[in-house]
Description:
heterodimer, A: 302 residues, mainly alpha, MetI-like fold, two-stranded antiparallel ribbon, 13 helices, 72% helix, 1% strand, B: 258 residues, alpha/beta, 10 helices, disordered N terminus
Amino acid sequence: MNAGGAGALFTATRFTRKKLLTQRIAAGVFALMAILILIPLLLILGHLVSRAWPALSWGLIADLPRDGMRAGGLWPAVVGTLYLVVFSRLISTPIGVLAGIYLNEFARDNWFTRIVNLAVVNLAGVPSIVHALFGVGAFVLFAGLGKSILAASLTLAIMTLPVLIASTKEALASVPQAFREACWNVGASKWQTIWTIVLPNSVSGILTGVILEVCRAAGETAPIMFTGVVFYRSGGGTGLFLYGPLDQCMALSYHLRTISTQVPHVPESLLYGTAVVLVGFVFVFNSAAIALRVYMRSRKKW
Amino acid sequence: MVGGDVPAPSGIEIRGLTVSYGRKQVLRDLALSIPRNEIFGIIGPANSGKTTLLKCINRTIEITAGASWRGTIEIEGQDIRRVRSVHDLRRRIGMVFPLPVGLPISIYDNVAYAPRRAGIRRRAELDEIVERSLRQAALWDEVKDRLKTLGTKLSGGQQQRLTIARALSHSPEILCLDEFSIAIDPVTTMRIEDVLLQLRANMTIILVTNLVQQARRLASRTAFINAGELIEEGDTEAMFSDHPAKPMTYDYIHGIFG
């Protein structure tokens, strides 16, 4: 072997150089896009916080509103949003996750399953205002719940179900089929396989879907404004136990909408302050989601 | 049901087995009689339906998408379609497929998986099963100090032996090996082959292999399947002789197939 020949083997050909150039351009464009999505996010947050600055204090969260919503805090709205989120999650999480498990693990591929899957996909595309109207018809009027936290929670639950089912199915489908077959081959039942192998390896994905829908439930205005949320209601109780399940309540998203559009002379800092509290609420839940996911990923086994 | 006038039933009796995936027939009217406590070799080119045949024996064909089958398979005279629980049937059969699958749990849990699902809880009993199975799969010495490591962290060949250990963990009556040595080095393969020759005393072993010499070394009888049909079945030595019943068998074994 002569060294010159071996060296020539490793010099870049025109083709290799072109290949590398293409890769660099692709990576550059993608990186640019990734940076671009940060810019509006930072601008929005910066703008909100700077405008809200004079109003930001612990009292903004913990006090009752005063002076026809033009001063004071947001406590009833914070509690109302918390109630709506907790109740709607209690209703839709078990239904959505269990339905997702059924559809991905048990359902045979027949016309019925296909219709259910089609319904799930289509339901995810229904606008939230339509869910609101359904909620009025089904829960407020037909079920006789009236405008209440329960009716609004049920509406939110229905609205978030499709995405919950889809994300659960997605998480389960990411577990390799070979794992299931290996279990079936040694005589494990479907349920044993799901419980021992499939769920432990998909729970982080399922939880991500669950918590992302928490944020959606907290932020939506349309489905709750006709079904249980009002402009002002401080509730009969105190502290965290402000409302009963059949009470009407306040909520951050709706509150922000009303004081921005319906109430004259609200100080600007209070408007932005309300937005910051709403974003903060969502941010707290998102952080919890990310922390949980990091923890679960660290335990992921393959 | 088989009456009492029939002589002692053989290990596995397959009659009229036809399997289709959608419209494509992969096995056609297959009949095989696999004697008990022997190693039975199955050879044949890729895509000839060997793996499908194994999937029928433990009825995992029924959970394979798009597959349908007809015909009868009897194990010890019992129609496998009429067993009370398909899970009990699968527990009587150990399956090793060519792609190694380490479950994403510890090595110990991988091997203890089947016994636990069958209700065995006592630690001492499980320990014993795990050690015996791993020894039989020629893996014990390599992993005995790290049984808590994830099964998925093992190398391909080690995972393959882990799969064999898992198949042996529930003490099956029938062991089906599909290309078990594909990722295993020759020395270890020989060790496992020795174990198989010992295991023969307690179980019926079906050995699907592309290595025709492996079939020759181990199997007392061999079947040659091509394109979903049984070409020839008989005594291994006769099949590997210069004059098997069908010229096609000779061509396949000697690599002049086509």
